[in-house]
C-alpha cells in the first residue's frame, strides 16, 4: 500500500511538559498505573479465593465474594487486604499517591510470592472461574477456546511491564 497519507502533530508548550509528552508518545515511561491494576486484580482474586481475608467484619455489596469467607487472623497480609478493600470501597482514583498505596499493600500481602501450585484446590477453582469469566477484560485478548491456562494468567499478573505502550491512553 502506498504511503498516501501521513498524520502530523504539532505539540507546543513549555519544555518540561514537552519532554513528558514525548515520553508518553514513545512509550518510555514505567506504566505504574498498569502495575496497580495488575496488583489489584491479583489481590481481588486472592480475596475471592479465600487466600486473603479482612481482619474486621466488613461488607462489600458490589461483589460479596470478596468477603464471603468472613474474617481472618490479624496477619500483615490480611491487614493489607483490608486496606485494599477500603480503597476499593472508596473508589480511589489511580493517581500517583494511590498507585503507591496499592503497591505497598500488594507487597505487604505477599500475594506476589504465591505460586499457582501452592494454592489450595478449592481456591484454585474459584480463582480459575473468575479468570475465565474476566479473561478478555483483564488480559485484553478474547479467545474462542475455553482452554485458558489460568496458572499462566496468575503468573502474568505478577509480571509488570517496564515500559508503557506508545500513546497509551490508559
Automatic annotation (TrEMBL):
Q: Where is the DUF1281 domain?
A: 31-170
| Pfam families reported in the protein's UniProt record | DUF1281
Which InterPro entries does UniProt cross-reference here? Answer: Api92-like_dom_sf, DUF1281
Q: Where are the transmembrane segments?
A: none
Q: Which Gene3D superfamilies match?
A: Api92-like, Api92-like domains
**Source superkingdom:** Bacteria
The name this protein goes by in its record: DUF1281 superfamily protein
Q: Which organism is it from?
A: Duffyella gerundensis
Amino acid at each position: 500500500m502506498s504511503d498516501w497519507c501521513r498524520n502530523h502533530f504539532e505539540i507546543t508548550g513549555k519544555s518540561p511538559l514537552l519532554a513528558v509528552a514525548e515520553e508518553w508518545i514513545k512509550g518510555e515511561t514505567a506504566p505504574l498505573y498498569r502495575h496497580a491494576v495488575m496488583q489489584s486484580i491479583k489481590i481481588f482474586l486472592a480475596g475471592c479465593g479465600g487466600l486473603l481475608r479482612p481482619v474486621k467484619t466488613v461488607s462489600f455489596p458490589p461483589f460479596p465474594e470478596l468477603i464471603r469467607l468472613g474474617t481472618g487472623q490479624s496477619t500483615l497480609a490480611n491487614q493489607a487486604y483490608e486496606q485494599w478493600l477500603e480503597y476499593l470501597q472508596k473508589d480511589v482514583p489511580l493517581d500517583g499517591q494511590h498507585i503507591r498505596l496499592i503497591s505497598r499493600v500488594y507487597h505487604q500481602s505477599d500475594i506476589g510470592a504465591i505460586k499457582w501450585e501452592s494454592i489450595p484446590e478449592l481456591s484454585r477453582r474459584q480463582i480459575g472461574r473468575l479468570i475465565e469469566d474476566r479473561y478478555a477484560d483483564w488480559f485484553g485478548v478474547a479467545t474462542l477456546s475455553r482452554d485458558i491456562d489460568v496458572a499462566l494468567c496468575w503468573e502474568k499478573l505478577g509480571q509488570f511491564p517496564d515500559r508503557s505502550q506508545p500513546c497509551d491512553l490508559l
